[in-house]
């Protein structure tokens, strides 16, 4: 698929693209790129990698920029990423994609964008923005979820576990790595070593870099927040365990003297003088109750209860 960059992206044929001076966007499969790359007359020293893509990056060649996109799916950050390659020069950009990932973005730009000052730089800016357009809302949802977890911990909600905190931490780590790679890519474009881009249009890349930096900073804050939540949760568990141990210790302390009395009077000696008194049993009962009350009073005075 081929598009000319005008007031809008306009779909065209290969012949129309070859016979115009307008900047263009092309979308090819790996096989189509192998067959047709000579038509774009790009000075490519190293072929863009189209398989086993693992990072988002851009590399400057003698007369072109090539690179790859490795984009986590925002609906499920742990699922398979969108992967495709690209090559560009001052005349246009070619996406080499065997999936529909880049096509969806291009079609959306074609459908929703209308430019007063059309340019390749503006198209790239809109393309990059489509990748991160919902990320502030995603990060906000993570913050709200962590706030809710903190409230549950404070309110001693037993249904909370650390599993979800770990999931958010892993998702946030993947997003942070993605932002770092996008920053590197944006800086290569802004550097404009090969002078492919017009000087006054480099502001688009600076705007994109600033936005990704804010996303990265927010991601770092969420990472710190997840650590804080994990520490609070661990402290909460420690407090609960200590409280349980305190109760067990108090119960043991209360019943130890009673067990001593039971053990003492459980011995079957014939000559135990207390056995001959009518009030021996009630007296022993009252003494046991008094011992328990005195121990409980002592715990209250020490604020252990």
Keywords:
305 residues, alpha+beta, Methane Monooxygenase Hydroxylase, Chain G, domain 1, single chain, 2 domains, seven-stranded mixed beta sheet, 8 helices
Explained architecture:
The chain is an alpha+beta fold and 305 residues long. The chain has two domains: 2-237, no CATH class; 238-301, Magnesium transport protein CorA, transmembrane region (Methane Monooxygenase Hydroxylase, Chain G, domain 1). Helix content is 56%, strand content 12%. It contains eight helices and seven strands, in the order ββαβαββββαααααα. Strands 2-1-3-7-6-5-4 form a seven-stranded mixed β-sheet. A hairpin with a 4-residue loop joins β4 (57-60) and β5 (65-71). α4 (120-132) runs parallel beside α7 (202-265), α6 packs antiparallel against α7 and α7 (202-265) runs antiparallel to α8. The longest helix has 64 residues, at 202-265. The chain is rod-shaped, with a radius of gyration of 36 Å. It starts with a strand and ends with a helix.
Oligomeric organization of the protein chains: single chain
- Stretches where pLDDT is under 50 for at least 5 consecutive residues are none
Strand order of the largest sheet: 2-1-3-7-6-5-4
**Helical content (DSSP H or I, runs of 4+):** 55-70%
Find the count of extended strands (DSSP E, 2+ residues): 7
Strand content: 5-15%
Task: Estimate the global geometry from the Cα principal axes.
Answer: rod-shaped
Mean pLDDT score: 84
Number of domains: 2
From the alpha-carbon coordinates, what is the Rg to the nearest angstrom?
Answer: 36 Å
Query: In whole angstroms, how far apart are the ends?
Result: 76 Å
| Total of DSSP H or I helical runs spanning 4+ residues | 8
Structural class: alpha+beta
Largest beta-sheet details: 7 strands, mixed
Order of helices and strands: EEHEHEEEEHHHHHH
């Amino acid at each position: 698929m081929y598009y000319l960059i005008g007031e809008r992206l306009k779909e065209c044929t290969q012949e129309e693209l070859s016979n115009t001076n307008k900047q263009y966007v092309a979308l090819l499969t790996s096989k189509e790129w192998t067959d047709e790359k000579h038509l774009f007359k790009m000075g490519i020293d190293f072929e863009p990698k189209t398989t086993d893509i693992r990072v988002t990056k851009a590399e400057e060649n003698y007369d072109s920029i090539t690179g790859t996109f490795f984009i986590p799916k925002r609906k499920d950050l742990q699922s398979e990423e969108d992967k495709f390659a690209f090559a560009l020069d001052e005349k246009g950009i070619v996406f080499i994609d065997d999936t529909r990932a880049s096509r969806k973005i291009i079609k959306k730009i074609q459908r929703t964008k209308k430019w007063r000052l059309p340019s390749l730089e503006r198209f790239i800016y809109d393309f990059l923005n489509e990748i991160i357009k919902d990320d502030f809302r995603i990060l906000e949802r993570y913050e709200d979820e962590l706030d809710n977890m903190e409230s549950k911990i404070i309110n001693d909600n037993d249904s909370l576990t650390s599993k979800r905190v770990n999931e958010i931490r892993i998702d946030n780590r993947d997003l942070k790595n993605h932002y770092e790679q996008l920053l590197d890519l944006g800086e290569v474009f802004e550097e404009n070593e090969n002078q492919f881009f017009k000087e006054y249009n480099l502001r688009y890349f600076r705007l994109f870099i600033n936005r990704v930096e804010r996303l990265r900073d927010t991601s770092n804050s969420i990472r710190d927040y997840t650590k804080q939540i994990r520490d609070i949760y661990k402290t909460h568990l420690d407090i609960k365990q200590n409280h349980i141990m305190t109760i067990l210790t108090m119960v043991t302390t209360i019943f130890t003297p009673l067990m001593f009395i039971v053990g003492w009077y459980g011995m079957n000696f014939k000559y135990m003088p207390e056995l001959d008194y009518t009030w021996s049993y009630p007296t022993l009962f009252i003494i046991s109750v008094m011992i328990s009350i005195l121990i409980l009073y002592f715990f209250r005075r020490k604020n252990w209860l």
